[in-house]
Design brief:
single chain, 74 residues, alpha+beta, OB fold (Dihydrolipoamide Acetyltransferase, E2P), globular
């Protein structure tokens, strides 16, 4: 459903980050490896995403490289 998000990094911790895109903040789950490679707060970033849908939850997972996201889909 979503391919990527491009926006400003407004929050980050070891398990998630928040990207502000068009005035909307997206909570994106990330790995610790992705966390260590994130730019500083206030920086523009492009993140490839995968929307995980279950009956009781929606989760957006983020990756800095398309190949990482493609591997996650397997």
């Amino acid at each position: 459903m979503y391919h990527h998000l491009e926006g400003v990094l407004v929050e980050k911790c070891s398990s998630y980050c928040v990207l502000q895109v068009g005035g909307v903040g997206y909570w994106v789950w990330i790995s610790e490896g992705t966390f260590t490679r994130l730019p500083g707060l206030g920086e523009k970033i492009l993140m490839y995403v995968w929307l995980y849908v279950r009956e009781d939850q929606l989760r957006l997972f983020g990756f800095l490289q398309k190949a990482e996201r493609d591997f996650f889909e397997l």
